[in-house]
Recover the amino acids of this structure.
């Protein structure tokens, strides 16, 4: 079984409370879940920090996500709890910073991961904040046994730093999505301001949440700013 698993927490050092900042009338984390609903999967789970659960639960319910809480800093453990709780075989890993995930790129990298039986797969040089990672559940459970605190907080570094232990698939993104200078994540006030402008043009219409459309709208309304 494949699950989209979204990691998120309510606090942020660079942009306080960003998960609940409004984007066209809904919190940012809600918009992220809406974007992820455009990715085909058997389950969708929000893996949040324990202190975020009460705030996120009604939003997850509204978006059709299940929710499970775990340690704030040990995000890898959150994923492992989700894997055990829902008997997942493959994780499409997403983060709460990214309301403009390319659904078509997510489907493509996950399909490639399955076809080559990769433990870890992710495109290189997508716009920052556009991508997801496809990871086998067994690889994440194995990583949890030996990962250091940094690797536990960031989930996947243990995998791609140990190519002798895991089968990795890290191709460059196809040319139509190869725009590494475009920044779509929300981590700062500047990012948030940019996201509001971009989102107002996209309005979360599902057919618009593909890579080429987002890139074209970004270039049209924001130029080459990143």
């Amino acid at each position: 079984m494949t699950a989209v698993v979204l990691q998120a927490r309510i606090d942020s050092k660079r942009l306080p409370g960003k998960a609940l900042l409004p984007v066209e009338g809904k919190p940012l984390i809600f918009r992220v879940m809406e974007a992820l609903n455009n990715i085909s999967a058997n389950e969708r789970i929000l893996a949040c920090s324990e202190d975020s659960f009460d705030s996120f639960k009604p939003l997850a319910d509204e978006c059709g996500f299940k929710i499970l809480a775990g340690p704030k800093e040990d995000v890898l453990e959150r994923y492992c709890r989700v894997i055990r709780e829902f008997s997942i075989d493959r994780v499409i890993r997403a983060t709460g910073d990214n309301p403009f995930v390319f659904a078509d790129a997510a489907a493509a990298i996950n399909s490639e991961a399955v076809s080559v039986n990769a433990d870890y797969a992710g495109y290189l040089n997508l716009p920052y904040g556009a991508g997801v990672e496809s990871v086998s559940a067994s690889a994440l459970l194995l990583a949890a046994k030996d990962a250091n605190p940094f690797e536990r907080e960031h989930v996947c570094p243990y995998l791609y730093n140990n190519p002798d232990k895991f089968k990795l698939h890290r191709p460059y993104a196809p040319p139509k999505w190869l725009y590494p200078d475009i920044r779509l994540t929300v981590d700062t006030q500047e990012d948030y301001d940019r996201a509001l402008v971009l989102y107002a043009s996209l309005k979360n219409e599902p057919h618009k949440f593909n890579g080429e459309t987002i890139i074209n709208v970004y270039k049209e309304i924001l130029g080459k700013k990143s």
Q: What stands out?
A: The chain has a mean pLDDT of 94. The two ends are 36 Å apart (CA to CA).
